[in-house]
């Protein structure tokens, strides 16, 4: 469990961490485990579903990462398998920005005509928009890519928080870097935008590494989940902090003027950092992780460029959203948990092709049915 002091340092006390929430609400853990069985099982077609569900989706999907697009494909496939009639209105915006556009889309599209809103929460303005929807409409809110309920919503939580817990994924990456560098290392961090995701993925990583022995953060940058900005930041990071011929510091167990790895907090950031390393011919000298394990990251792993990643069992989140709506339409919303957090697999360059194929078949079991994700 993440300590309260760490949460305070990261300014995350306003959120319930997953394990903390389940400990305080044991009935939610039972409900989540039962719900996960539905997500992992073959779909059971609904009976007497005559109404059409009106669904509005606003996603930060204008990025290289295919997470959001795959989520939509999995969501729709499962809705159809469940026999749910639906009207789907999807809008993609830029990650970490376009907040005014998101507000405009909500105002124009919601009214009293939307049954379900699928949105995200990464900035304070998102919280205000969600509160506005909660207070002014009967729309049920599904928050994607966040699995930590806001304490401010108290007993009036959104219909569902769904995704892959950022803290769990980050802990896996912390453990992998500490295993790879048992004597410590010099590293840099590339954050996204200044918001929730960067705090969990980047801030928690920094906190955990600071507590470890001989891990030295040389510099960090906010790059707005933008590939070009990540490349530029990496070039500057290497210019300022990487002299590969520097002598070893035997006390620290690392080279004082040599970067060992760069921690990336998203797919686009990882690919931008790799662009810089390849330009400088350093892709074999400095390790870089991925975050999410989508197609572009896996291709980079196969090419022996990306060092490793945490791979989300991607389509489970879209399936979970469809199953939650199905239960709600059947009048069984009491079976829908407040949180659904999917699972990860750590994947590196040594993984056997057959094993990776098994992971891909599971993670993309619906979204690979669409040619749009290839």
Automatic annotation (TrEMBL):
Give the Gene3D superfamilies listed for this entry: 3.40.50.2300
Does the record carry Signal as a key word?
yes
Disulfide bond in keyword set? no
Question: Which UniProt keywords are listed?
Answer: Signal
Q: Pfam families annotated for this entry?
A: Peripla_BP_4
Give residue ranges for domain Periplasmic binding protein. 57-324
SUPFAM superfamilies from the xrefs?
Periplasmic binding protein-like I (SSF53822)
Record-given protein name: Substrate-binding domain-containing protein
Species lineage: Bacteria, Pseudomonadati, Pseudomonadota, Gammaproteobacteria, Oceanospirillales
């Amino acid at each position: 469990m993440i300590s309260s002091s760490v949460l305070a340092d990261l300014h995350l006390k306003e959120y319930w961490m997953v394990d903390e929430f389940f400990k305080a609400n044991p009935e939610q853990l039972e409900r989540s485990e039962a719900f996960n069985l539905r997500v992992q099982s073959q779909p059971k077609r609904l009976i007497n579903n005559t109404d059409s569900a009106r669904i509005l989706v606003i996603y930060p999907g204008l990025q290289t990462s295919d997470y959001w697009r795959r989520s939509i494909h999995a969501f729709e496939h499962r809705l159809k398998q469940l026999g749910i009639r639906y009207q789907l209105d999807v809008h993609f915006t830029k990650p970490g920005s376009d907040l005014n556009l998101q507000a405009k889309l909500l105002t124009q599209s919601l009214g009293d005509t939307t049954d379900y809103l699928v949105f995200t929460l990464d900035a304070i303005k998102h919280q205000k928009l969600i509160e506005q929807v909660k207070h002014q409409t009967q729309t049920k809110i599904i928050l994607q890519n966040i699995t930590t309920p806001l304490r401010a919503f108290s007993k009036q939580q959104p219909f569902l928080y769904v995704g892959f817990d950022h803290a769990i994924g980050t802990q896996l990456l912390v453990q992998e870097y500490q295993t790879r560098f048992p004597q410590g290392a010099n590293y840099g961090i590339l954050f996204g935008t200044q918001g929730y995701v960067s705090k969990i993925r980047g801030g928690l990583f920094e906190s955990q590494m600071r507590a470890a022995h001989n891990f030295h953060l040389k510099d960090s940058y906010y790059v707005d989940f933008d590939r070009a900005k990540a490349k530029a930041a990496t070039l500057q990071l290497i210019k300022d902090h990487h002299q590969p011929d520097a002598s070893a510091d035997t006390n620290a167990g690392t080279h004082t003027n040599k970067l060992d790895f760069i921690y990336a907090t998203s797919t686009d950031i990882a690919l931008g950092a790799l662009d810089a390393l390849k330009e400088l011919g350093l892709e074999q000298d400095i390790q870089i992780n991925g975050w999410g394990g989508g197609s572009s990251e896996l291709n980079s792993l196969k090419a022996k460029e990306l060092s490793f990643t945490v791979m989300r069992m991607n389509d489970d989140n879209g399936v979970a959203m469809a199953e939650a709506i199905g239960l709600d339409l059947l009048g069984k919303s009491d079976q829908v948990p407040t949180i659904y957090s999917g699972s990860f697999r750590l994947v590196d360059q040594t993984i056997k092709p057959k094993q990776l194929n098994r992971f891909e078949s599971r993670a993309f079991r619906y979204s690979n049915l669409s040619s749009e994700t290839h």
